[in-house]
Amino acid sequence: MANVENSSNGFSKSTNQFTAGIIVIGDEILKGQTMDTNSAFLTKKLFHLGVKVKKISVVPDELNAISDEITAFSSKFNFVITSGGIGPTHDDLTFEGIAKAFDEKLYPHPEIINVCKKFFGTDDLKNPKLKIAYVPESAKLLFGYDKISQKDLQFPLVVIKNVYVFPGVPHLMEKSFQALEDHFRNPDGKSFNSTIYLDENEYSITHIINEANQKFGSNVALGSYPKFHNNYYKVCLTLESPSKDDLDNCMTFFLKKLQHCLVTDYDRDPILNASDKVYNICQRIVSHKFDAEFCEKLSNSLKILEKCFNSYKLDEICVGFNGGKDCTALLHLVYAVIIKTRGDVSELNCLYIRRGQPFPEVEHFIKKTVKKYNIKLHTVTGRIKDALISFKSVKPNFKAVIMGTRLTDPHSSHLQDFSPTDEGWPEYMRVHPILHWTYGELWSFIRNLSLPYCSLYDVGYSSLGSMENTHPNPSLQRTDSKGNISYNKAYTLTDFTFERSGRN
Ligand SMILES: Cc1cc2nc3c(=O)[nH]c(=O)nc-3n(C[C@H](O)[C@H](O)[C@H](O)COP(=O)(O)O)c2cc1C
Ligand SMILES: Nc1ncnc2c1ncn2[C@@H]1O[C@H](COP(=O)(O)OP(=O)(O)OP(=O)(O)O)[C@@H](O)[C@H]1O
Ligand SMILES: [Co+2]
Ligand SMILES: [K+]
Ligand SMILES: [Mg+2]
């Protein structure tokens, strides 16, 4: 008896004490109308997390049946996981059942009401959609984190004591569980993971995944996640196994079968340790991806930025950011330099001049980027010069604008690293860290670091103005055997003098 070590929650942390019971709730399953796949999913997942599932129970939508099972399970197992019965209709009784089991009342949880308001556009407690906000008094909320999309899930998981209430709809349940799986992980249980990124549609590799599942599925948990808005991959495969050998064998199988569409060296989080990653290129620590000439240019770009941040205070500097490729690379450099020299970027200012009819794709990208890099965006509408004039009068503190202009841009061949604005323009110091980069070097930097960029560059645009004056680049156009026209991606353009052929 002495080897049972109790932790503060009353449950032992030793491996064999990580137990779970699953309660599947719903008449439709007991009537054979729906096949329960949730318990199979959960059992497999929990097994790989080092949690022993001791019992699976299916109960009808009846208050007493639910509460009796909750009472029995919650005293026996570390985790009680329910699925189903949390919808808006009268037969959804999971929360009532749990409340009854613990002798609690239901009340509208303020935080869930907020989420409902965001989702359904209403916080009217009489609206049936708000039924989901009524939870037992001791309920706590867990917000999951989706590792694949790197986003917090919008809808919280409700936990009452040791009962975890999941939705019944399989894809929602699976998504929600995966986002919270670390919560259930047995720290003593070993698990090995790998991820593979593929540049191929999911349906054309399904047969390979199915084959792998037959061969390795009993020892390796496989996940396949299509991604629709990524510049680098279309499908992400995840492999997880308690055995390193099994994982390696499965990995070898995939690498062989999927050679043709493997995305190598994809960095899921380029912002993490961005500073080291960028500065290491100059030190030629990862030089195999870049030639010596570019490393020299990059090193110079960083020096220009360091000089800029030494010459001006942070609140005197703005980055000209319009969602284009050049300022996308530029912003990442600025970020790397600030992190290196100051440690955080919370006060970095960017200026977006909104002119003409902006592409929705561009503005979507700007929004995402602002959030990712945690920058402060100032948006001014109008023609560039007018916008700068009004920006100057509203925010007179700014003295320097860092820009992604390169020598090959129109009217730019005379520019220097630091060039004051021209006569007749509002007074700013224009700072040009990537002035000497070529189009090819720019893309090589973006792609090698896996930086996200505006989706238009993947559908034939190679330089972006506004909708009324920007088209896909004719030099990127291709025609298939049936005469259908499509466009290659911007980074494949070989003759850089055609960079602006889609602009008028
Ligand atoms: C902050 C800022 C300062 C600028 N200063 C000048 C300037 O001094 N002289 C000038 O002719 N154009 C200036 N421009 C305009 C740019 O040279 C260029 O025409 C503009 O960014 C549009 O580029 P695009 O045609 O490649 O989209 C400035 C633009 C910005 C955003
Ligand atoms: N509307 C704008 N708002 C803010 N900054 C701008 C704007 N237009 C241009 N700039 C600045 O001038 C630089 C050069 O503009 P340019 O259009 O050549 O580059 P880009 O927009 O980054 O990429 P692309 O060449 O593919 O359009 C930008 O990188 C940005 O720093
Ligand atoms: Co440009
Ligand atoms: K330009
Ligand atoms: Mg542009």
Layout of strands and helices, then pairs:
Elements: E1 19-25, H1 27-30, H2 38-48, E2 52-59, H3 63-76, E3 79-83, H4 94-101, E4 106-108, H5 110-120, E5 134-136, E6 140-142, E7 145-146, E8 151-152, E9 157-160, E10 163-166, H6 170-179, H7 181-184, E11 192-198, H8 206-216, E12 221-226, E13 235-241, H9 244-257, E14 262-263, H10 274-282, H11 292-311, E15 317-320, H12 325-342, E16 349-354, H13 360-373, E17 376-381, H14 384-394, E18 400-402, E19 418-420, E20 429-431, H15 439-448, E21 477-479, E22 485-487
Parallel strand pairs: 1-2, 1-3, 3-10, 15-16, 15-18, 16-17, 18-20
Antiparallel strand pairs: 4-5, 6-9, 7-8, 9-10, 11-13, 11-14, 12-13, 19-20, 21-22
Helix pairs in contact: 3-4, 8-9, 10-12, 11-12, 12-15
The protein binds flavin mononucleotide (FMN), adenosine-5'-triphosphate, cobalt (II) ion, potassium ion and magnesium ion.
Adenosine-5'-triphosphate is lined by residues 320-322, 324-327, 330, 351-353, 355, 403-405, 409, 463-464.
GO biological process, one term: FAD biosynthetic process
Pathway: Cofactor biosynthesis; FAD biosynthesis; FAD from FMN: step 1/1
Subcellular location: Cytoplasm
Main features:
6-stranded mixed sheet, 34% helix, 19% strand, disordered N terminus, binds flavin mononucleotide, binds adenosine-5'-triphosphate, binds cobalt (II) ion, binds potassium ion, transferase, nucleotide-binding, EC 2.7.7.2
- Spatial strand order of the main sheet: 2-1-3-10-9-6
CATH architecture identity of the largest domain: 3-Layer(aba) Sandwich
Let me know the number of strands: 22
Structural class per helix/strand content? Answer: alpha/beta
- The coarse overall form would be globular
Distance between the termini: 81 Å
Which small-molecule ligands are present, each listed once? flavin mononucleotide, adenosine-5'-triphosphate, cobalt (II) ion, potassium ion, magnesium ion
CATH topology of the largest domain: Molybdenum Cofactor Biosythetic Enzyme, Chain A
Approximate strand percentage: 15-25%
The total domain count is: 3
**Average pLDDT taken over every residue:** 92
| CATH superfamily grouping of the largest domain | MoaB/Mog-like domain
The first-level CATH class of the largest domain is given as Alpha Beta
Kindly provide the radius of gyration, computed on alpha-carbon positions and rounded to a whole number of angstroms: 28 Å
Reported for the largest beta sheet, the result is: 6 strands, mixed
Unreliable stretches: 1-15
Fraction of residues in H or I helices: 25-40%
